[in-house]
Amino acid sequence: QLQLVESGGGLVQPGGSLTLSCVASEFTLDYYAIGWFRQAPGKEREGVSCTSTTGGGFRPDYADSAKGRFTISRDNAKKTVYLQMNGLKPEDTGVYYCAADRILECGSYYFRNYRRLGVWGQGTVVTVSA
Q1: Angle at Cα 78 formed by Cα 127 and Cα 8, nearest 5°?
Q2: 71-93 pLDDT, tens digit each
């Protein structure tokens, strides 16, 4: 069974950068849509970015809050999906999770229906504060 492990969180000042990693236990991620989500204290989990590779392509998608600042990428050889976060703001603070699903494709529906996603990591904490 696929397992996901996130890392790379930490404390960073506003305007700073972090790169999160999500390592998968499966030998290939080719058939999964992988997403990054976050949950701030007292708030609902929200989608940040996702990517599908159905058909051999790489199709990233971003929440409006992440566009222009965050970049998702994947290294299939390392079974790893990254989230490069630049220009961090205090409102980016939260627990960041990666998730994977073999049925739902990356996009707004994937973000809205996160409760249906099949596999989740344990999360990594990002704190943006001066």
Answers
A1: 10
A2: 999 888 899 999 999 999 999 99
